[in-house]
Write a structure and sequence with these properties.
about 0% strand, single chain, mainly alpha
Length: about 210
Amino acid sequence: MEKKQHRSIGRPRKEQGAASTKDIILHTATTLFLENGFPSVSMDDVAESCHVTKATVYYYFKTKTDLFTAAMVQLMNVIKEKSTTILATDEPFKTKLFHFAKGHLQATVDIDINVFMREAKLALSKEQLEQMEKAEKALYKELETALSHAMEQGEIPETNTRLATLIFVNLLTVRNSMDEDFKRSFSSVDDLAKEIVDFYWSGISGGA
């Protein structure tokens, strides 16, 4: 008589062909964290939104900070993949910057990213912060590499690529400092992305 194979205690069932429970939890948690901020989201909220028990959430993520870290690292990896695709095209470098900026602005349209991360970082461990920093560096390394390539191709003059990367990334957070009236002066995300890139380009290209 064959022995029945038992799944690990507490391990949620997965239907064949369906998204894994862990992936569903990560995707849902990312949305909740981005919409409501780290302090306002509980493991109960995540479980309820995923239609699973809280024990299931805790099976995959021991703490809320573990879940937040995994969610943000995954989000940055997704953005990195999209950025890699954008920066690998044969379009002019300025056009690549526009698409990069547009994607970043769309992803953070309803978020004050500085406040969002400040609230979360107060609760994260040193190891969790290092995981997020590593993912962030990998994301912006793509832009730094693209800047180097643009210099080699003669599209922009020689400059400090690390500094040029940090300046551009920080320009993309400028909306956090805008009041509502000023935000409304831009007709669309495309409009704001174009103005940011034009401003950046006038500096990095020497006005060319």
